[in-house]
Amino acid sequence: MLPRPELLRGSRQPQLLEPLIASAETVLRTWQPQWTPFLGGALREEAEACLGQLSELTLHSDGGYPGAERRRLLLQRRESSQEPSQLAGELAGEFAGEPAGKLAGELTGLEISGNFLFDPAEGDDLRQALWAAGAAAGDLGDVWRLGDRGGQAIVTSDLAQRLHGCQTNVRSVEVRLEARPLADLQLPAVRNPKRLNTVEASLRLDAVASAGFGLSRARMAELIRQGEVRINWRSVSSPSKELAVGDRVQLAGRGELELEQMALTKRDRWRLTLLRR
Question: What is the pTM of this model?
């Protein structure tokens, strides 16, 4: 048995982390690899830090594309660890008759098609519609919009099969759901890390984030109030929230911004170094 109290010490989400520790125990006992459900960024980072302490275990994360925020972890015994692609083939052959996607951790795409010209949708609107259609959080990866045509998502193959051809509503817009290969998706752009220097009058979230993400301050304040922005993975709704060194700002569909350094100028303004990923 793993030392759960020690592994859970300091966790912000112990009730969500504990089932992942239980999965690791099963993998170590049975020597059978397992995929976790999709994990949000905060929980995934906690799980990687927690389970990464176990010398007998290896971790591999996969969200369907390199820049994915929501990802699943493949847990394997170190002595038997394999590349996920090789493991997928072996699992599919060994467990003939079982749902291959579930066993192999296969991911696929989901098209969410509708006319959003007069009722624009955000990523959270699309996600909530998929939940209403029967998607479980653990089967649903990143979701992003495609202008006024709808959006796309990364999902498990099992979920894609269940939702393929279904119709549902995103607020007032009727949408159709269709499974798509990952290669056919218009994936969000993968950004290379970029360090930025800026001088701002304050450390307010809307001011710093607008400079880092290249959006107007008014637009950034609007996104914050809509719940599209998080600080250290925690939702925030106040544009006036002040940042500190080490804070990481996540903006849905646009990546992450970290405040690395700050110094007060002679004119009482803030000289900031930001890292955008």
Answer: 0.80
